[in-house]
Amino acid sequence: MESTSDPDGITSTALLNCLRREVxxxxxxxxxxxxxxxxxxxxxxxxxLSDPEVFTGSWHSVSWHELAVxxxxxxxxxPVGFLDEIAxxxxxxxxxxxxxxxxxxxxxxxxxxxxxxxHRYHPAPKGRGGLPAAxxxxxxxxxxxxxxxxxxxxxxxxxxxxxxPPGVLPAHPxxxxxxxxxxxxxxxEVWPTSSVRTVYDPAADLFYKFSLDVQITNDVRRxxxxxxxxxxxxxxxxxxxxxxxASTYPGAAxxxxxxxxxxxxxxxxxxxxxxxxxxRHTLPGVTPLLAAGISEGFDGNPLDGLDxxxxxxxxxxxxxxxxxPVLHAxxxxxxxxxxxxxxxxxxxxxxxxxVQAFYRDHEGMRxxxxxxxxxxxxxxxxxxxxxxxxxxxERLQYCLVANHLMEIAGAVLARHPDLDVWAExxxxxxxxxxxxxxxxxxxxxxxxxxxxxxxxWTRAEGAASRYVDVxxxxxxxx
Length: 478
What we know:
The protein is an alpha+beta fold.
């Protein structure tokens, strides 16, 4: 059975989830037939699939590696290094589990660093570019790392509101080692968030997002020049939008990317984006927690210990806190929030009830056509920051419903399987207002989900859009 302490099970689960969602034909009994090769698979049902078996006249177990090979036979012409990436992810999970100490005392840090399994619908969620564990474990959130940044001194390029001392460029020691550079070690420690390359500086209450020349999931995590130049003008657009949302929904907060600083000689490689910290936005008596951490589980998870009625109230409150600000951003302001599990923090009160939502990482946001003037100014190179209303709504449904709420609901239902949590969610969506797109969502049999395996197969960038339909839990059957 899949668990968060078994690298074989975690890897198999990710591959099974991808096959069921993107490739296989799923029968009523839960078996999965691969249409091209005719291979028939079955797995233990549950929140996530586990314990795969293949039918060859009788059922027998299949390993994660054998499952990966079946994928290459089914889809054909695998991307270069595909099997190595899966093996690397598996090895990374084993290394993380072997090096993991006791969790930190701070609940927020604990939630950010809880993601041993990572993205449950990606074939290689914990790949680290094939590098030896000794190179990246000191900077790994999964082992509750803390480390000091390196400070470079000189003349640097700023754009936006960058609250850093003049003449100093903070740098990630892992990236510096990849670039063969060095500098002066800072005096205080930071710790990595779930995204690996973004760290939190508790002393300054700021986040720093660095370039990292390592492939994690689909992309090398470098801060590309066209993305960097998008950040300051986007921040100017978003500040009044966020102010309006926060006044409409008190407690909603936005950890805005203020701007960036970098070296003119190594513009992308040494770039750092400076983001608002979480503490300055946290209400008194509230503890921020990463939504993905709540889904994955950690010691101190507010879902633990709730009875049936408490869990139902908790989920209704969670949806009420997280969803309306996202819908308001879309319908009132034409802003498509990238509100997936790792981009949303939820603040809980002393009783563990959700009372606040924090949204972050605005680089991935998209704007609807009403922002044509800004888009023509900074997106004239044919980029994808501007989207039609239909494409923006598709993206939002994936981030909010398939990626986010389905996983939070799954965590609740894993504890209380008979709860009708989706009736609570439907009520929140329906109460937001009368909008044709919202009505169509509630009346649709399916919602879009990102096809990470197929995107990897087509060598697409991680930001590319390719979706498959999955059953819509918001659809009312009766």
